[in-house]
Amino acid sequence: MGNRHGRIVSSATMAVLLVGVVLTAACGAGSKPGRDEATPRTTAASGATPEVEDIDAAVEASRDEGTLVVYGNPSPDQWTPVLEAFGEKYPWIDVETFDLGGAEAFQRYLNEEATGAATADLIVNTDGAGWLDLVDRGQVVDYVDPELANLPDTAVLAPGVFAMSFDPLVAVFNKQALPEDEQPTTLAELADRAEDLDGKIGTVDVENANAGLGTFGYLDAEGEDGWAVLERLGPHARAEDGTGALLAKLQSGEYVASFFASGALRALIDTTDAGDILNYRYFADATTLPARGMGVTTAADSPDAAKVLVNFLLSEDGQTAACGGGFTPYREGVECPTGLPAIEAAVGADNVILVGYPDEVVTGQAELRDRWNAAFGR
Length: 378
Fold this sequence. Notes:
Blueprint lengths: L6 E3 L9 H8 L28 H8 L5 E5 L3 H14 L5 E5 L3 H13 L6 E4 L2 H9 L19 E3 L2 E6 L2 E6 L12 H6 L8 E4 L4 H14 L1 H10 L3 E4 L2 H10 L4 E6 L2 H7 L6 E4 L5 E10 L6 H12 L1 H9 L15 H8 L4 E4 L4 H4 L1 H11 L3
Parallel strand pairs: 1-13, 2-3, 2-4, 8-9, 8-10, 12-13
Antiparallel strand pairs: 4-12, 5-6, 6-12, 7-10, 7-11
C-alpha cells in the first residue's frame, strides 16, 4: 500500500518501510499487491537493518512474562473495548494501563529507567517531540512488525514507533446556541465570524501535546494563510489546558463554538446525552489528524507481551476494536463510522492532513508556541 491521502506532514526518513524484508516475511500473510517500494532503512545506533519480528515466538515468550504495563494518554474508557478484544485472543496477558498525558508519560519512564525501577513496557502517546527525544536516547526497541506489510508507509513514525491511530482534531458546537445550519464549515469561516462570537469561541492550548501537534500540521500545510486565520481568531477566542474544561464550557453555553478539540469527543457526543446539546464537524480546511504513536521500551520487563499488543493494534482485529474505543483506524478494510475513510468522505481526501513526527516538531516548537501565544494574547 502506498500513501493514498492528500497531505501528509511527516519526515520522509521516518516514513520508509523496510520493504525488502517485510514483504518477504509477509508473503504468506496476505500482503497486498501494488505496494510502493521503498529503500531499506538502517538504525542510527548500529547501522544494522531492523529485523522482522517473529510474532509467533513473541506470543509464546509472552506466556512467561508478568503484567504488561502501558503508559499513555488514552483514557480507561477508550482502552476498555480494545483490551477486551485483546484479552479474548491472549487471555494470559494481563494489561495495566496508566493514563499519563503528553510529556508526563515520557518523563516518568525516564525517571524510573534511570533508577532501575520497574516501568512501562509500552508507551502510547501523541507527543511527537517526546517520541523523537526517546528514540534519540535509545530507549525504543527498533524492529519491524509483520503487520506493516499491510499498512501505509505512514504507519512508521520513527524507528520502532508505529501509529496506533490518526485521531482528528474537530470543531465542536453548542447547537442549542448555534444551530447546525448556521455553523461555519471551515476554520476560515469561523475566523470571519469571530468578532460576532467574541469570547464564545474555545480551543485547546498549543502546549497540549495533541493540540500542538495538530496545530503544527495545519500550519505546515497552510503556511502564512493558516497563521492569518489563527491571528484573526486569537483576539476573540480563549484557550483551555485540555479537552475536559473545553467540553464543560461548551455544554454550559459559555462557549458556542470550538476548534482543534480532541476527536475523542466524537464518541461522547454520538453515544450520550451530550449529543442533545453538542455536535461536532470536520472543518474542510483544517482537519488535522495527529498520529498516536506506540513503541516498546528498552527497559521493558515484558517486551514480548508489548510486541504482541502492538501487533494486535496494527492488525485488522485490533483496528476494529480501536474503533469501539473512539480511536480512528487507518487500515484499509476496517469498517468504522469514525475511521479515516469516513473523514475523507466528509472533507475530501485532499483536505485530510495526517501529522507524523518530522524533526520540525522539535526544532520549530518554540517559534510555534511563541507566535501562537502572541496571537491568542497569552
